[in-house]
Amino acid sequence: MLIKNDLYSNTQIKNKYNIGLGILKVFLALDVIISHNFNKNSTHNKILLFCLKRRRVHVPSFFIMSFYFMHKELLRLNINKIRRRFERLIIPYFFWPIILWIINNILKIIFNINISCTLEDLKNQLLWGNNFIIQFWFLWDLIMITLIFIVIIFLLKENSLFFFQLLGIFAYILQYSGINKTLYLYLSSEKKESLGRLVEMIPYSVTGFTLAFFEIINKIQNNKLKTFFLSLIIFSLIDKYEIFTKIDGIAYSGIKLNIHSISLIFLFSIFPTEKISNKLIFKFLINISKFTGGIFYLHWSIICYLKNFVMIVQEGSFIGCIIVYFICYMICFIGIKYFENTRFKYLFS
Predict the structure, then answer these.
(1) Cα 71 to the center of its chain, rounded Å
(2) Cα separation of 75 and 279, whole Å?
(3) Is 165 exposed, middle or buried (0-12, 13-18, 19+ CB in 10 A)?
(4) N- or C-end of the chain: fewer Cβ atoms within 10 A?
(5) Distance between CA atoms of 313 and 302, rounded to whole angstroms?
(6) CA-to-CA distance for 87 and 343, rounded, in angstroms?
(7) Extents of the domains making up the chain
């Protein structure tokens, strides 16, 4: 409510909202679209190719930030906040597949588009988060790991952090030993992504929880210059050199991605929000960082639809990726206008 009335003038909100992390979410949401649609053969621009290099930091970073911001509510077992978290996850997880399944069937009938739309497809999508909305394995894992964390905190209370860290180490053992990849290969196709990547996501969840427990992001605000240089150096070294042992994982295995993502989060978190004195700029930065959740939920389907009609999306150009982002943003913008006062707002935010 305060954000609507006077976002800029309310200093409490300004101090609480980290613009840098908001901008990072925009970058990561675009990076997801790029990873799913960008074709490096669509351009010869070396600067663009370097910037759009596939680093796979979007999923780890989103997981780290998710558990970072949920840390207090989980640790306190705040029922109301936890309930709202599950609403934010479960409503899009179940409702978007149903909505998009209906749209898929309509488009198949009208335009004869080759797209998944059987009842079996819908069943597998709802059960495992991976069929015609391939990225929903992320939500499946997020829901399951949140449940695991709640159970552990309920049972162990003040010892939960130590157990989480042991769990993260155990997850890395499964990854580096190859056990997780072996089990993944035995899973049926509809279960592979959600179950197989669960072990890969646990360390990022533990990282986010640990950073929040020790209030690391708050503490580095007092040493922004040092944090900037150290994070930039670490990010660049990891990006350029194979410092860590390569791992034959599924998609997001290994310590490299964890440290890479932490460095990126630190770089954006020290954005000098307090230096923004212009009301319009502040509001603009707030607005562009909205709806990254909805963009993540919708982007794959929008890509699939547009590929049938829009050449630059079909070719996988960077401009095509921007168009996909903009269309997803506008759908979320309109959706929020209609459903802002209902729980269906979680479909777009």
Answers:
(1) 17
(2) 36
(3) middle
(4) N
(5) 10
(6) 8
(7) 33-54+292-349, 62-270
